Amino acid sequence: MNVLPNGIRLIVKRNPSNRILAMQCYFRTGSYYERSEENGINHLLCETMLKGTQKRTALEIAETMEAIGGEIDASASEDFVVVSTISTVEDLDTALDVLSDVIVHPTFPPEELEKEREVVLAAIRQQEDHSFSFAYKRFRALLYEGHPYAMPVIGTTETVRGITRKQIVALHRGQFAADNMLAVVVGDVHPDTIARKMARAFADMPLHHEEKIHVSKQFRPRYRARTFTREVEQAFIILGFVTDRARSEDYVPLKVACSVLGTGAAVSARLFVRLRDRLALAYSVGCQMRGAWDKSHFYAYIGTSPETVEMARDKLLEEIRLLAAEPVPPEELERAKNHLIGQFRIAHQRNSAQAEFLGTYEMLGLEARFDERYCDLIKQVTAEQVQAVAAKYFTAPTIVILRPPAKAR
Amino acid sequence: MYISKLNNGMTVLIQENHANPIVTLDVWVNTGSMNELPEINGVSHFLEHMMFKGTKKRPAGKVDLDIESVGGETNAGTSKDFTHYYVTVASEYVTTGLDVLSDVIMNSTLEPDEVERERQVILEEFKRKQDSPFNSLYDIIHDLAFQSGPYKQSVLGTQESISQLTRAQLMDYYRRYYTPDNMVLVVVGDVKPETLLPEIQKYFGRYRRTAQPFDLPAKPIRWGGPVRRIIEKDKRESYTVMAFPAPGMATPRETIIMDVLTGILGNGRSSRLYQSLREKKQIVSSISASYELAKKPSLFLVFATHEPRNFDAVCEGVLEEIRRVRARRVGARELAKVKKMALNEYYFATETTNGHGFMLGLSYVLSGSEKYERTYLRELNRVSASDVLRAARRYLDPEKMVVATIQPKGAEEPTAEEFPAP
Q1: Domain containing A75 — which CATH number?
Q2: Are A282 and A361 in the same domain?
Q3: Rounded distance, CA A253 to CA A234, Å?
Q4: ipTM for the complex?
């Protein structure tokens, strides 16, 4: 980690094997820090940020990046905002010029804001039209009730309608400052060169950011369940639990526990084998351990026939609870760990993915070094640890079910 | 790239890439839903599912286990033209990968119990597709655009055909098409061709070619447009797809010109459709164009999301841009931009071993040789403004446009209810 003269933290990972350059700028701001009446403001800011600067119109930003065959993107999450480019190393100067321009000098033109507001409202409607996003949004709201993570990153129809340009400008002024920025660069560039160019590109950025409100909450395990009805062909179930923050010592054992069940949709893991292969309850079944700055969560999902909802729900829970009841046999534990390590290596092939791992770990408080230590940490996890974290967290579930109305069943 | 043919007729392509200690092995079988008669529609895809459900020496589940135990991943895909199976493993396990993949593809047993269970899984996959607006529209638009032709049918099949396919039909199709001379093995990653080839020979070379695939009665391509189909569902937004005729691999240069034309109209934020419909007219929340490379003449597609009341304006707005690209040559700067984007997308796609493997396999299987992929960038660079104008006039005929839209039927808000602990 390098700290530039104005306080920007910079991580450079040199990769001489190709000509692709990934640059990502992270800011500690996101829906976690939003007041409930401004929910969605970080997301709306990101959408509007690429729509005009003091020297470029929206079209000029798009054209400049696309003329070099590059991409620029800004996206918000619960814990941070990231603005990123992908280009070739040869076009470093152009890409960095556009990247720093949208970060330091965006003008948030009023007509562009209105346009993006409509697009965000449309995206909210579209989330309602896809089973996973429909169910996951409601699952989070129920799981994290009373905590800022209950709010959707995209906001709600009401809050997005109410956000003003003035509020966006204030958020930008308050958080897009040098001491709140982490830059990650992966590609075939010399760390000194990139440090020098970055320092110059971001020279007129404000130095200090404004303090933010932090709201946290202790969660007592409590059973919550809700069913929603829409005219769908397939029912969809999400269930899960709140766990501790990503930088707690339970995080890595929880990753392994999740891998035993089936991270993503691992095909030799328990959920896939037992619920899909043996019981034919689903096409899509899996689970995910999502690390967060404050409180992480684990969830499992399954898309199943309306007739088999209860069975699928009970089987999912049974598999999850089994982790707490019995230690994972040695051979299976080994396989789950190897799978995690293999996936980690396969996922690191792209420069942009490498940058994303480094940046995300740093923003979750795990520190970029976690990327190097990950495989060793996984290898050290024991069956007892997996059983212990399962027993600690996988107790009373939050369950959300989407299913068709009774008359269609 | 290294290219070779085994004695049994199987083609082998090896691309070294030592950036990471990883290798992807990707077997392409030259068959897909285009080779299916209506009564067995979905058989290629059903078979793809069955390939992971047990072989003579590996019971169901063991296949995945052997790969995931060493940290690898397996997956497969079926399209209208091809079916492919791939594993990505650490390069030290390349032999395990070859062992498993060759066993799966050559020795699957299609156990009757497994067929029945997997049928339920595929029916769930079918329902999932029905709930996803653009995935269901993809099938609807092909059905509407082609009155007849190899790409009319869905890859997944219909609910009836999936329910009725028999094990005997699966086995018959398997024997007919899964023969080494109908396959291409693509290897990308941290390997040396000279040491790998004997291993490939050991695992794949021992299988003999079986009967040649039957030639199906040719399905003449008849255009189904112009037509507009409006479908109402319990949705909150409108999802629209528009289709125009597009060339196939019989005219490889035309397909590359189509890539450029697609870029001009609908790839990226500075593209014409995005600028006109999203930024200026503000009648869509998203819009993009795509052209799917295929053996036979396929479709040029435009995808848009918008409010239901804008449906007519969206159709008209797309047609306006189509007329414009047919009326005047594109400028030099715009052409250069689109070529540069296509060039970089090619580089970005080859950054991963499975991305690169996909590209090599796809080009080879669709065109029948490695030349298409090898000359792609050179041909891309040669595309002129006149080429683009001519292709737009030839293919994107406004009189032929086929449109399908899924729009909200004005359903009530979802209701919620609590339920007791199970």
Answers
A1: 3.30.830.10
A2: yes
A3: 33
A4: 0.94
